[in-house]
């Protein structure tokens, strides 16, 4: 993963966390507002919570799509590497299998 992609993922994670914090804060404000306020205040808070929830849903969908794209790219790169270097891939797999076997055998 390039440094630019890593920073984009970090920004996406940070934005998602901020959006969820806003959503939680709005939900808490809605609960406080419903404790004895007029119907107009409650309706305004419900609208604000609904808007925050919609934004959070969009951000989660975007993050999910980005993760899916990255997983597909990694799978494609792995497939390409295995096709270009089959014996290296076999050696790596054998090495990993040996290490796992040794670790399991020690128990």
Write the layout of secondary structure elements.
Elements: H1 3-33, H2 39-84, H3 86-105
Helix pairs in contact: 1-2, 2-3
Could you explain how this protein is built, in words?
The protein has 107 residues and is mostly helical. The protein has one domain. It is 91% helix and 0% strand. The protein is built from three helices and no strands. It has helices at 3-33, 39-84, 86-105. The longest helix has 46 residues, at 39-84. It is elongated, with a radius of gyration of 24 Å.
Question: What is this structure, in a nutshell?
Answer:
91% of the residues lie in helices and 0% in strands. It is mainly alpha-helical and 107 residues long.
Poorly predicted sequence stretches spanning 5 or more consecutive residues: none
Order of helices and strands: HHH
Mean pLDDT: 79
Q: How would you sum up the global shape?
A: elongated
- Oligomeric status: single chain
Binned, the helix content reads over 70%
Distance between the termini: 35 Å
Number of domains: 1
Rg measurement, Å:
24 Å
Largest sheet: none
Please state the structural category: mainly alpha
What is the number of helical segments per DSSP (H or I, 4+ residues)? 3
Number of separate strands: 0
In percent, how much strand structure appears in the residues? under 5%
Tags for this model:
107 residues; mainly alpha; 3 helices; 0% strand
